[in-house]
Design goal:
Elements (H helix, E strand, L loop, with lengths): L9 H17 L1 E5 L10 E5 L6 H13 L3 E6 L9 H6 L3 E3 L6 H12 L3 E4 L17 H9 L3 E7 L19 E6 L12 H27 L2
Parallel strand pairs: 1-7, 2-5, 2-6, 3-4, 3-5
Antiparallel strand pairs: 6-7
Length: 223
């Protein structure tokens, strides 16, 4: 059998492995349901958002457990910061102008998924306090339905123990629990041009994410 080409590229494989080790130094890492992320082909990974670290953590977990590269929709202002902008551009993340419907970002995300890649998105749009999910935006539905790709609902818990929001200082608890739980993929059902279908699909995604968040919370807090 001819081995399949690793889509991640050498630089990301190296960075991913180093970050994976760093995560294990900083957290007690637990992952469940990784097999729900397709080993190949298009999909959208949709997760809750409780920390500025979430994008990096999820990208590394998917890379190390499924050997896949994830392109996330990230706030456009981060691309302008020298500390992270270079990495976001180098690893082909997708800039998203928050607070408005960014048609260009959505089109790039749809094209990326149609090309057979993984795209990651936080449907809430902003970092929340973790107490409850914020309302989901239609972007996740527009991408999945337009591209005809499944959505993998994902829950993450524990990153907020280190860095709850951008601009706040890193916290230093001793290796808090960190859990990432992936759920069964949701098939794309509905018309991307129909608002009612978009809203119904977003509701399904957010309900599934809520289930994974509860599982992630329990896993992170287990001894």
């Amino acid at each position: 059998m001819i081995p399949t080409r690793d889509e991640r590229g050498l630089l990301w494989r190296i960075c991913s492995r180093l970050l994976w080790w760093a995560l294990h130094l900083c957290f007690r890492v637990r992952v469940a349901g990784a097999s729900f992320v397709p080993a190949s082909g298009p999909a959208v990974v949709a997760a809750n958002h409780v920390s500025a670290l979430d994008g990096v953590v999820l990208a590394v977990v998917v890379s190390e457990r499924r050997r896949r590269m994830t392109r996330y929709l990230a706030a456009a202002e981060f691309f302008e910061r020298w500390t992270v902008g270079w990495a976001l551009r180098r690893f082909r993340q997708i800039p998203l102008r928050r607070g408005e419907r960014d048609a260009a970002a959505l089109e790039e995300a749809v094209a990326t998924v149609r090309a057979g890649a993984l795209v990651g998105i936080f449907p809430e749009g902003r970092v929340g306090d973790g107490a409850e999910l914020q309302p989901g935006h239609r972007g996740v539905a527009r991408i999945a339905l337009a591209a005809g790709a499944p959505v993998v609902p994902t829950g993450i818990w524990g990153t907020q123990r280190r860095w709850p929001r951008p601009g706040l200082h890193l916290r230093r608890p001793w290796r808090p629990g960190l859990a990432v739980v992936f759920g069964p993929p949701l098939p794309p059902e509905g018309d991307p041009g129909a608002e009612a279908d978009l809203d119904a699909f977003v509701d399904r995604v957010m309900a599934a994410i809520a289930d994974q968040v509860e599982a992630a919370r329990a896993l992170a807090e287990a001894r």
